[in-house]
Amino acid sequence: MLKTTLLAAGLAVLLALPSAAQNTNSGTDKFAQLETLLPTPNSYRTASGAPGNDYWQQRADYNIRVRLDDEKQAISGDEDITYTNLSPDVLTYLWVQLDQNILDKNSITTATQVGEIQARMPFQAMDYLQRDGFDGGFKIGEVKLKGGKALPYVINHTMMRIDLPTPLRPKQAVTFSISWRYNINDQLKINQRSGYEFFPDDKNYLYEIAQFYPRMAVYSDNQGWQHKQFLGNGEFALPFGDYRVSITAPADHVVGATGVLQNPNDVLSSAQRQRLQQAQGAKSPVLIVSPQEAEKAEQTRAKGTKTWTYAAKNVRDFAWASSRKFIWDAMGIKQGGKDVLCMSYYPKEGNPLWGKYSTEVIAHTIKVYSRYTIPYEYPVAISVHGPVGGMEYPMLSFNGGRPEKDGTYSADRKYGMISVIIHEVGHNFFPMIVNSDERQWTWMDEGLNSFVQYLTEQEWERDYPSRRGDAAQIVPYMRTDKSLQTPIMTNSESVLQFGNNAYGKPAIGLNILRETIMGRELFDYAFKEYARRWAYKHPTPADFFRTMEDASAVDLDWFWRGWFYTTEHTDLAIAGVKQYNVNSQNPTVEKGLQREQKDKAPRTISQQRNQTAIARTLVDDKPQLNDFYNSYDPLATTPADQQRYQQLLKTLSPEQQQRLGSGLNVYEVSLKNLGGLTMPVIMEMTYADGQKEIQTIPAEIWRKNNAEVSKVFVTEKPVASFVIDPYQQTADTDLSNNAWPQQAAPSRFELYEFQQRAAPNPMQQQSALQQKEQKPLTTPVSTGGSN
């Protein structure tokens, strides 16, 4: 409610000072620093968020030989791993990840899966539950040291411990080999991050292969071995190293993989090699394998094999794809002074979407991400279309988005396909280069990547329909039952509402930092500094939080605490507005205002009725009862009033006299934080003349009272309305309390004529079915003959 009062000039100044009530906090201070939650800085990881002088990380180099069995849909292989201990610790055993064991018959993922039976279930759900006896786990053959000595090992579900015959000391390396095999899953039935798709029309397979080899686990300064079991949501934590991988596949297959092809003369025709060379400097994609060539290959069944050898330096993982159905196109770009070859592999079922967009999207993604983080330094970037909807690996990603069989597609399909390619190619930066621990913190790769994905989408097309970016897009999630939410700082396997919590909320939180709290200049510099500091290293959440503050000089502990460590939501409200004006002490002005207010004041109901009900009063009939006060006007300006005013002016300086007559408007706006999540107050003031002004008040306004404060605004023009967060920058979950005067939320409803219709009973349904199935009677056609 608006309360208008005349106020002395000195009192207006006091309104800007916090009252005793505004200096109290109940419960935890939301502006307390995070020292008690973050790990203590040390020589490995500094208080600034940068790697310390003694930072170290392990290294694992691989030489892998793998064979694809296209008849049995199976993989077999062997590998040599050289593991270098760059830690200050002595290691007596090593941990190796066997992530394919998530598809083992005795998988703990399957054993711990929870759910409810629905009245209607898709066939795919039963396929996944039954799996038709499918066993996709690793079958380990030999584990032995270089030179042939067998190594003892123990398999614990998705982890394998290898016991070393002699301790591995700092700066020492050990080389050992592992052989294995496993069955490849039908991705359309058993949805994983890797698998095959069968095309019944041409009876061909398309393989997207990852987690296909036993991989070294991370050993780090902040947690030792990262050997948390792979349960499905928490992805991977892997050390960097160099890879050389030889992939033997049917001779008519095209194989794409992480890294650079080492033997093009052995696997490509001269025409294909020439086209690949041409693509290096092309402005648009060049076909290496054309649709016509791919369709011809679909009809063949080569009995022989080819071995494709790829090499990749300083990567954390390796993946590949193989099919005789692949169309292959490529184009080169310059990034940071280096050549990057952007390539796409896709079956004809992906066209026209894939031939038109995929490689262009890759190039666009690499350019934009490099600008916001660090220059992309790998030689290739690849997008493969197949059964995996979206999954990322160094230099290579698997992506969905297939048009209808007639080549048409919806807008959702088009933009969904572009977005997933941006997202998965963007993962080259998070976590393939800035190598966070996905097994522990999904948000550190998915959330950060989804944020830069949003920036990249907006540079693809004006008003691109991004799903995650603007603050208002996370509001529906923030409104959900708190029992269905978890803080962002929750282990990957325990997160509820995975997409909203691990992707959307951290991404949108970063956009709120960039647009509302820090500003683009400070945020972009700090975010880029984080990427620079931790490129090709293993950052933790504390390293990110500390770097963002260290490089910007903005205290963000309150934001990390609220947005990342709690499930509180934003709900700022205007509780009330009081209006004050400076008392000019000019009797003509002030008494005139009082008379105006008196005249405008409503008469009571009794006064209104008495006006007609009481024809004459006693004083009307006996005028002798009148005295001085019956004609006295207290609001009339007297010479004495003017004299006192002139005497006052003589005691004031010219500046003080001007202040008295300024006619300033002073508004005391009462604010409440109903949602608990601290945010800046973005106040839009609309003046009586229609002009608008926006003031952004930093979140520190809540530092002495996290629940309610009053803010004083001084304006030259009268304010007609106040609105909090007019552009929905803070994910406020209730806009109905953001305005003064309160504004009705417009909506519409539809009228229709009510008709009560009962569902058909079983007898009616059976009768209708019989009529539908009954054959129509036919009448013999006369030939005109006689018996």
TrEMBL record:
Residues 776-787 have a biased composition (Polar residues). GO terms for biological process: peptide catabolic process. Keywords: Signal. Coiled coil: none annotated. Pfam families: Peptidase_M1. Residues 1-21 form the signal peptide. One of its GO terms (molecular function) is metalloaminopeptidase activity. Residues 359-563 form the Peptidase M1 membrane alanine aminopeptidase domain. InterPro entries: Peptidase_M1_aminopeptidases, Peptidase_M1_dom, Peptidase_M4/M1_CTD_sf. Residues 757-787 are annotated as: Disordered. One of its GO terms (cellular component) is membrane. This is Peptidase family M1.
